[in-house]
Amino acid sequence: MKRITYPIAVAAAVAALAAPARATIYGTMSNFDVFNDTPENCYGAELELEGVHAADVYNTYPSHFDHRNVTEYNDGTTFGTRVTFTGYNFTADGFIPPTPGQSTNGHACVDTAGCEHFGFAVNTQPTATRYFWLDSNSQRIGTTPLAVPTPSWTYIPPAGNQPAQLQAQVELPENEDHVQQADAIWMKVYKTEIQRPAKLEELMSGNAVVPEDQAEVETEWELLERGVVGDAQDKVNNGDESVIRRYEFYKYTGPYTPEHEADSAYDSKTMSDPPANELGDFIAANMVAANLVPVALVQGDYNEDGVVDASDYIMWRHHQGSEVYPLIDGDHSNVVDDGDLEVWQSHYGGNPAQAALAGSNVVPEPVSLLLLLTGVGLTAAGRRRDS
Ligand SMILES: [Ca+2]
Ligand SMILES: [Ca+2]
User: Fold this and answer.
1) How far is Cα 199 from Cα 213, in angstroms, rounded to an integer?
2) 89 CA distance to ligand 1 middle (Å)
């Protein structure tokens, strides 16, 4: 177990030192659940990625929306990309405000009404990330972003005898609409490194790449308050290609000062956990990865496993007609359609002759694969002629 303290005064100096190296992180991704904490029913969501061009958003993970729209914005001082999800399809009534005290482990909302599971993968890291719920007219509900603390990364390349270093900072979103300062929350952080790039779909609670064991605890407990930045800096071992963190957030239920600052009795030197009366419900888990080497996206590799095979066909078939799976949109037509099947076919096994044959709904034995592929290939060709 490793405990790290966070001298806030040092953070600015570290950030300044590291600023020129920002671009050397090749991809960042984030995966998490969010409950609707607005007073209204929600029908859509908007993800705002500051400092990121639309072409650099290469994957997203919405669970329950029919449509995805990606637009760039530029207000003269900052630019970025907005990814807007509409057409909520889990229930007709949108998703309702939550029951107080509900919690999530970072993947529960994939199949649960009342909350939503989000993920995104970008080729450059955003300078800020904001989330908004949308009403039935696709308008933002309120002007304050959701209270999803979002880590940002800074990479310092190796120099001389010094190994590369990676700094992760967590900042609570500003809460400008409220006269009173937002509530404090507890944060616990787990960390691991792997020797290959992480994938968005892997960043879910329970997945083998996600650090969740006590031995992988990086920050035992830290109390976050508005304006306070939590950050961790660590050496990157040779060969590590991805650094993955799991952030857990819990309610702070301890006393506050008249200025609404947390008045906690927690002492990290003498206590392993916060006092029982200060540690409230588990709010959320946020899985975040930084890929330190470029990821070569293979055309037609719709499940990101590095090869173009029948499993990519299965991905394509399951999501036909969807507008929310950019990774499967091989021909960039903004919808999963026959054009993407053609992209898959032309890269199948690196062999165009094999690619004339298409897949099945199970991964079959080699011999039956050919038969199954032939049948489905004909079906797909027939549909194209009809359209
Ligand atoms: Ca594949
Ligand atoms: Ca397409």
Assistant:
1) 20
2) 28
For tokens 């199949």, what's the residue? 111
With beta carbons less than 8 A apart as the criterion, state whether 152 and 180 touch.
no
Domain boundaries, the chain: 8-291, 310-386
94-111 confidence digits (pLDDT tens): 777 666 556 677 777 887
CA 188 to chain centre: 18
For the question of whether the overall pTM of this predicted structure is more than 0.85, the answer is: no
The sheet carrying 79-88 orders its strands as 65-74, 79-88, 44-50, 128-134
**Nearest ligand (C-alpha, residue 343):** 2
The rounded Å distance from CA 299 to ligand 1 centre is: 9
Distance 339 CA to ligand 2 centre (A): 5
* CB neighbour burial string for 22-52, b if at least 16 within 10 angstroms, e if fewer: beebbbbbbbbbbbbebeebbbbbbbbbebb
CA distances to 81, 123, 225, 258, 383 from 263, in Å: 39, 40, 11, 10, 66
- pLDDT tens per residue, range 164-178: 888 888 877 665 555
Dist. CA 338 → ligand 2 center (Å): 7
Distance 120 CA to ligand 2 centre (A): 19
